[in-house]
Design goal:
Bound molecules: glyceraldehyde-3-phosphate
Largest sheet: 7 strands, mixed
CATH architecture of the largest domain: 3-Layer(aba) Sandwich
Number of helices: 15
CATH topology of the largest domain: Aldehyde Dehydrogenase, Chain A, domain 1
Strand content: 15-25%
Number of strands: 27
Helix content: 25-40%
Radius of gyration: 25 Å
Oligomer: single chain
Distance between the termini: 55 Å
CATH superfamily of the largest domain: Aldehyde Dehydrogenase, Chain A, domain 1
C-alpha cells in the first residue's frame, strides 16, 4: 500500500479547485415540462469522500440535499406521464421517428455542455475515479448517438412492405406506454440512460427515478430534459423507492419497468402491479461471475484481467469477477503475483492521478465486507495480501481470501466490493458445477491456452450464462453486444439495438393483396395520410 490508510483522506484545502463541487440544496424536480419546487423533506447527499479535520479525524463530506418525495407527489408525476401518453394518442407516441430523433439530438447536444459538472459529481457522490467518471459520461453520450443511428436503421427497414401468402403488410415498432426507469448507483448515468433513452426515443413516456446514490448528478441535466422534450414525456421522481415507486406500481398504470438492481428489489416491486400480464420488465440483476484460471493460462494476462475484473470501481460492477477458481498447479504462483498486483494499485481520492482504489458510497458497506471476511476466516480462509481488509471510515482495502470453500458466505454471496475469494480446484467439474448450480447466470471468464479444454468450458457454459469471455475479464461492452443474464441475473436483453426492441412492440397493418386494397394503400402513402403507413425513411 502506497500510504497509510489514515492519510488517505484530504484536508479541505488539499482538494484541487477544478474538482470542487458547490453545496447544492436541490428542491427542483421535473413534472409535466416544468421544474417545480419540492416543499417537503430533503435527503442529505453524503459523499464517500471524507475530509480530514484539525483533530485528525475524517468526516464524510455532505455535498447537498435532494427531495425526499412522498407517494402523493409520485402519483402526480405518474399522472403527468399517463396524460402525455394519453392511451397512445398523445403528442409524443404519435410523432414520427424523425421528429423523436430530433428531440433526442437536441438533448444530447445540451448534455455534452455539462460534462464537467456531471463528472465531478460522479466522483463526489459515488467515489468513481476521474478517469472512469469521464468514461461513464462519454460512453453514455456515445450510447445515445449509437441509439439514434440504430433507430434510423430500424426505421429504414420498417419503411418497406412485405408480401406473404396473398397478404401485404407493413410492420413497425410502436411504444409500450408509460415506462418507469430505475438505475443503479454504480453507473447512475450510463446504466440508467441505457434504458431511459431507448424508452423515450421509441415514443414511450417516462418516469425516471435516479439511483440511491448519484442523484445530484442528474441536477445539471434537468433543464435539458425540460427543454428538449414535450411536457410530461420525461418526469423525474426523487425519494425512497419503497414510498414512491410502490405507490406507482399499485396503480397498474406502469406498462414497462426498467430496473437495474437486486432481484429481490425487482420482484418486490413487480408483485405490486395488479395486472402483471400488462407489465413488461427489463431487468439487470445480481451476478456472481467467476473467473477460471487453467494451468496453461498466460498468467501475465490472467492476472491483469483479474485485477481489473475484480477491482475496477472497487469491484462495484454487476459484471465484476466475484470469485476466482485457480487450478492447484498454479495457485501459489497466481497468489504471489496477484497480491503483488493488488499492492501496486494506488489508493486515494477519485481525482488523484493514477488512483484505482477509492472510498465506497454505501453506508454500512465496510461493515458488511468485514463480516464476509470474518466468516471466511472462521471457515479456514486466510487473507493473502498485506493490509487486506483494513478499513478507514468509508474505505476498505481489498482483501484476497484463500482457500475459499462452499462453507463460506463469500462463496455464494455477491460481495459487490473489494473482496476477492480464490478457490483452488483440480478437476474441471468443480468450477463447471459451481456455474451450473449457481442462482446467477450473467457471465463467466475462462483463462487458458488449450483449445480443447477451453471448448469444453465454452460448451458447458453456453446454456448457463449470457456471455463467456475467453482470456478476458467479464464486461458489458461493447454496447452493441447483447447484454443479458439467466436465472436471477436478468430479464430481457439490452444492447444498442436490443433496447429499442425491448421498449417497443411490433404492430402490423395487413390487407389481402388485391388490386383494390393496393390502390387504397398506395393513396394513403402518396397523400401522406398516415404516420404509421408510410414508405418515407430517414437518410
Ligand atoms: O454494473 C454493471 C455494468 O453493466 C457493467 O458494465 O462491464 O462496462 O463495467 P461494465
Amino acid at each position: 500500500m502506497e500510504k497509510p490508510l489514515i492519510s488517505l483522506f484530504p484536508e479541505a484545502h488539499q482538494i484541487p479547485e477544478e474538482v470542487r463541487v458547490p453545496y447544492t440544496e436541490q428542491r427542483e424536480y421535473l413534472i409535466n415540462g416544468k421544474l417545480c419546487e419540492w416543499p417537503g423533506a430533503l435527503n442529505p447527499v453524503v459523499s464517500p469522500v471524507c475530509i480530514k479535520q484539525a483533530d485528525g479525524t475524517a468526516v464524510p463530506q455532505v455535498i447537498g440535499k435532494t427531495p425526499l418525495m412522498d407517494s402523493a407527489t409520485a402519483l402526480q408525476i405518474l399522472e403527468a406521464a399517463v396524460q402525455a401518453y394519453n392511451m397512445g394518442q398523445g403528442y409524443w407516441p404519435t410523432r414520427s421517428v424523425a421528429e423523436r430523433i430530433a428531440h433526442v439530438e437536441n438533448f444530447l447536444a445540451r448534455m455534452r455542455t455539462v460534462r464537467n459538472e456531471v463528472v465531478n459529481l460522479l466522483m463526489w457522490e459515488i467515489g468513481k475515479t476521474r478517469k472512469d467518471s469521464e468514461k461513464e459520461f462519454d460512453r453514455t453520450c456515445d450510447y445515445i448517438a449509437d441509439t439514434i443511428k440504430a433507430l434510423k436503421e430500424l426505421d429504414r427497414s420498417s419503411a418497406k412492405f412485405t408480401e406473404e401468402q396473398g397478404f401485404m403488410a407493413q410492420i413497425r415498432r410502436v411504444p409500450l406506454g408509460v415506462v418507469l426507469c430505475m438505475g443503479p448507483y454504480n453507473y447512475p448515468l450510463n446504466e440508467t440512460f441505457s434504458t431511459l433513452i431507448p424508452a423515450l426515443i421509441m415514443g414511450n413516456t417516462v418516469i425516471f427515478k435516479p439511483a440511491k446514490y448519484g442523484v445530484l448528478l442528474i441536477r445539471p441535466l434537468l433543464e435539458a430534459f425540460r427543454d428538449a422534450f414535450p411536457p410530461g414525456v420525461i418526469n423525474i421522481l426523487y425519494g425512497r423507492g419503497r414510498e414512491t415507486v410502490g405507490a406507482l406500481m399499485e396503480t397498474g398504470k406502469i406498462d414497462a419497468f426498467a430496473f437495474i438492481g437486486t432481484h429481490k428489489g425487482a420482484n418486490d416491486l413487480k408483485k405490486l402491479h395488479p395486472k402483471p400480464n400488462r407489465l413488461k420488465a427489463i431487468l439487470g440483476l445480481d451476478a456472481k461471475n467467476p473467473a477460471i484460471i487453467l494451468p496453461d493460462a498466460d498468467l501475465d494476462n490472467a492476472i491483469s484481467e483479474c485485477i481489473t475484473g475484480s477491482l475496477s470501481f472497487n469491484g462495484q460492477r454487476c459484471t465484476a469477477l466475484k470469485i476466482l477458481f485457480v487450478h492447484k498447479k498454479i495457485v501459489n504462483e497466481f497468489l504471489d503475483r496477484f497480491t503483488e498486483a493488488v499492492k501496486a494499485l494506488k489508493a486515494g481520492m477519485p481525482w488523484e492521478p493514477g488512483v484505482s482504489l477509492t472510498p465506497l458510497p454505501e453506508p454500512g458497506k465496510t461493515d458488511y465486507l468485514e463480516g464476509l471476511v470474518k466468516d471466511a476466516l472462521a471457515h479456514g480462509a486466510r487473507i493473502m495480501n498485506d493490509n487486506g481488509g483494513a478499513v478507514n471510515k468509508t474505505f476498505f482495502y481489498p482483501a484476497v481470501l484463500y482457500p475459499v470453500n462452499p462453507h463460506m458466505r463469500v462463496y455464494y454471496e455477491e460481495q459487490f466490493g473489494p473482496v476477492i475469494p480464490v478457490v483452488p480446484f483440480e478437476h474441471d467439474e468443480t468450477p463447471i458445477q459451481y456455474v451450473v448450480n449457481s442462482n446467477y447466470g450473467q457471465q463467466a471468464s475462462v483463462f487458458g491456452s488449450s483449445g480443447k479444454v477451453l471448448a469444453r468450458y465454452i460448451d458447458a457454459f453456453t446454456n448457463q450464462v449470457g456471455r463467456i469471455n475467453i482470456n478476458t475479464q467479464c464486461q458489458r461492452g461493447p454496447d452493441t453486444f447483447p447484454f443479458n443474464g439467466r436465472k436471477d441475473s436478468a430479464e430481457g436483453t439490452l444492447s444498442v439495438a436490443d433496447a429499442l426492441r425491448a421498449f417497443s412492440i411490433r404492430t402490423v397493418v395487413a390487407t389481402k393483396a388485391t388490386d383494390e386494397n393496393k390502390q387504397i394503400i398506395a393513396s394513403i402513402i402518396r397523400n401522406r395520410e398516415s404516420v404509421f403507413l408510410s414508405t418515407d425513411y430517414i437518410i
